[in-house]
## 1
Amino acid sequence: MTDQELTLLFEQHGIRPTANRIIVAKALAAGHCPMTMAELEDHIGSIDKSGIFRSLTLFREHHLVHTLEDSEGVRYELCHSHDHSVDNDMHMHFHCEQCGATICLEDLPIPEVALPEGYQMQSANFILKGICPQCQKRQH
Amino acid sequence: MTDQELTLLFEQHGIRPTANRIIVAKALAAGHCPMTMAELEDHIGSIDKSGIFRSLTLFREHHLVHTLEDSEGVRYELCHSHDHSVDNDMHMHFHCEQCGATICLEDLPIPEVALPEGYQMQSANFILKGICPQCQKRQH
DNA sequence: GTTCTTGCAAAATATTTGCAAGACG
DNA sequence: CGTCTTGCAAATATTTTGCAAGAAC
């Protein structure tokens, strides 16, 4: 994602495009997967974790990212939805219990669910756990 | 669950039935939901968190419980499977973003998923997030 | 008596906040 | 100037371990 695209995206979400925020968002976009604070710190290098944290918190408040959790902790993922007031994340994820990575399975849409009366769904975190193809190979 | 049932269950999983472990497992069974360390500490009261932690770790190693994660952190749930070497958790969960509770939706089986070649699935954590019926009412 | 279990305290992590300096309008 | 943002340090919260005393076999 170019800086311009990101600046536009920020504008749509009512977020001021500061240098740090652009770096954080770019790192998230480049990851192509939901990322943890620790991963973002590693990939970025130049920004203090408190800055990353505050950017992510702001992004979340403005529905630019949503969160999901696995055994590595909280992960942040850019919202792909075009409705900027909603967090919907309509694809599955696979979490490898060996290497700890969490991968988007973009091609697997989350199935329809018949929620019982009274529940109001806002987002869905569907995570399959197991061993990823890389780790599978590594074992041989 | 009676102490006898639990003792049998422990035996099936190769776990020694100490007093503490029975208390921890009973608390989990009574909760009817996946529970966090903090919740277990509250409900039990008498056992130090390190003891609860070590019981849960042991249970997990012996496939008596499995874990799932939400914004409250790691939750532990008794395995209902009759295959004692597997963690399968075949129902959905609903996590309320208002009150933080995570509820089993026993009646909603997890759907079949066509995983791409190379992925080996061990368990599935399907968590819907939103507002639960109680919190829904509370807002009016 | 040897091994396993437990509680307490403390170490190791991870998350979140206060504050003063700097950037930006 | 006044408000917003940032980095650093420190406060909190959470998870995990070391160790000595006690229980179980």
Note: The mean pLDDT of chain B is 92.
## 2
Amino acid sequence: MGLPLRKSKVCPPPTCPLSEVLGLLRGAWAPNVIWQLSGEPRRFGELRHDMPKISARVLSARLRELETRGLVTRRVLDTSPPSAEYSLTSLGRELLPAIDALACVGRKLIEEWEMHQRKVALS
Amino acid sequence: MGLPLRKSKVCPPPTCPLSEVLGLLRGAWAPNVIWQLSGEPRRFGELRHDMPKISARVLSARLRELETRGLVTRRVLDTSPPSAEYSLTSLGRELLPAIDALACVGRKLIEEWEMHQRKVALS
DNA sequence: CTGTATCCATGATGATACTG
DNA sequence: CAGTATCATCATGGATACAG
């Protein structure tokens, strides 16, 4: 028979909002894109330069997604050749603290991991 | 020629720590697993019950990852049939506020999105 | 019950080439 | 420069069957 299943005492998991955001942070790039836009508006080419390993296709796709969700705005500049500038909306800026919180935990994770590795190396 | 590339004024992107965490939150399940463990320790079967749509293979994989990274501990219970209980370590608990922050932004995102949809419907 | 192994479908990404 | 189309590749997740 085994043990009975205990009812979860965790309140409604924030699954929907969470997956909403995580869906946006998807891939390995979206968080970086947002981060890169945290300062001044940046052009497509500048973003590519900031993230040398992202392909144009993926960068384009991420920007469209973020634009659709209202996190990023796109502005076409009247230059020759034409260029486009992307910036975070105020809604998009709300993600920054959350991203920062994650990065903060990430740093601790790496620290602990290295400490753990050292211990293992000694034994 | 076009515009010159402006140097990014964004300080060193927290790419490494970020991807460290996001790598852990990967898939669509890890955050939920962590959330489900935020209360009391839970057994494998209980977790499956909490997340009906996760497959045993994936749940197992996620738990192993989290265990390896020191976010989760696994304890085998001396029952018949044997069962295993998982709980968050203190390091793992540090992720909770960050996850909560994300969920918080997620709620706003959904709100804004719905408002946006209503506007579109009217026009 | 607690997993693990296998097979398969899907989705995300990179590279390349090409249009406006 | 900005962006898209196409193709090939790889990682991830689900289903199922099975082992301890």
Note: Chain A touches chain B through 61 residues (CB under 8 Å).
## 3
Amino acid sequence: MEKLPSYQLVAKEIEEKIKTGVYVSSQKLPSEYDLATEFAVSRLTVRKAIDFLIQQNLLFKMKGKGTYVMQPSEKYQSGKSGLVGFTESAKAFGKSSNTKVLVYDQTPQAPQTILNAMQLTKQGDLVYIERLRSFDEEPMTIEHLYVKSSTVKEVTKEQLANSLFELIEKTVEIAYSHQEVEAMLADQELAKLLQIKKNDPVLKVNSIAYSATAIPIIYDTSYYRADKYTFKNTLIRNH
Amino acid sequence: MEKLPSYQLVAKEIEEKIKTGVYVSSQKLPSEYDLATEFAVSRLTVRKAIDFLIQQNLLFKMKGKGTYVMQPSEKYQSGKSGLVGFTESAKAFGKSSNTKVLVYDQTPQAPQTILNAMQLTKQGDLVYIERLRSFDEEPMTIEHLYVKSSTVKEVTKEQLANSLFELIEKTVEIAYSHQEVEAMLADQELAKLLQIKKNDPVLKVNSIAYSATAIPIIYDTSYYRADKYTFKNTLIRNH
DNA sequence: GTTTATTTGTTCGTATGTATT
DNA sequence: AAATACATACGAACAAATAAA
């Protein structure tokens, strides 16, 4: 019995009209005034609804011209729907996810660069976790995680096979993360785990997740199979 | 003599206060009410200013709690400022860009997959361009471009060394583009051009740029040196 | 080429709802 | 339970860019 705000209801109706082909890409939407009268809401509400759909890359606007339907990207978009865990992202793919904990070290020696990034001056406040994550039994990614100990106190290795986000957010809420995508070659060990060949290309994704108070919570270096995973993006031209 | 809207002036002032350390990450901003009185504008204007800074990953909000300053990402963020050309992006880096046209074929045989993506049923409506682009004389990327002929009629090879966007937008305006990032290995030819070794990792970025009327204008496959280029992203957690 | 109409952009004021502390 | 802070929503008006007459 969710009670959605009216701008989201308007957004849903517009989305529906796009899906059913009433509004087609290459075509202009009715003006904000017309949409406001059609849905019996204020123009500001229509604008919020449109903004909402623009954020999802369904629409875009041009000042003085109108609002247009965007050509859909062929495949799944990663990222645009915000920061989500692997499990949630698997669902969006319509696949089942599977996690195997490879390493759980409660007293790791973290490299200095990571200590710096985590704003720590000494060892001892981090735990180290390595996980293999699969979609439908196919190895997708290896995660190397340094996590603030205080957020995962008295956690068993078994619990780590589930959503790390959920676990951590019992203690602190994660607000956002910065990530960086680069390309590299798989070494012997990585190749074996991901069931690929040595020197096959992989996507290395480095990310740091922060709390609202800008405290780094997770330092994550993940390696994705390049043949199974790509990162998608939609860029809008600002004239 | 630009006359910026007041929400952007407010945004600028807030941005300034972040830069000068008045507002620090880990710290909450004054409430929307307080900011509204401080800047002598309506609360809606403050909200627009904040939204503006959220889009640039400088702030984020939590309902009922407040608005916070985001920990800055250490390096340059690609993408977040929208669709920009290579030349413009070089400026953001504080570097000079250099372009060399390697191939300009006005009657190419395009692969079927590209014809499909460009919504064409026959050959003949595309031109093919290959360009090497450098930052400060360092090879950064090789571009393989298929461009709708109608947008680059009677263009000389020399003109292609400048901004392709500018050239095209004399005919049609580019509205947005979908892009996909993947990892692969450099072949012999690519390695030579990018001055790397064969089988070194490269980032392959595939993108299609569309006009407002959803007509595909450019089909671009670019190869970036993995040691020089990464893609950055900021994801916000939606609870 | 200039004016006019259309469409999005900005901004105010006001009120009420919802989440957090 | 009350106060604080962000979220939603209405109405109204004028500005700015674009397109059509």
Note: Residues 76-80 of chain A have pLDDT under 50 and may be disordered.
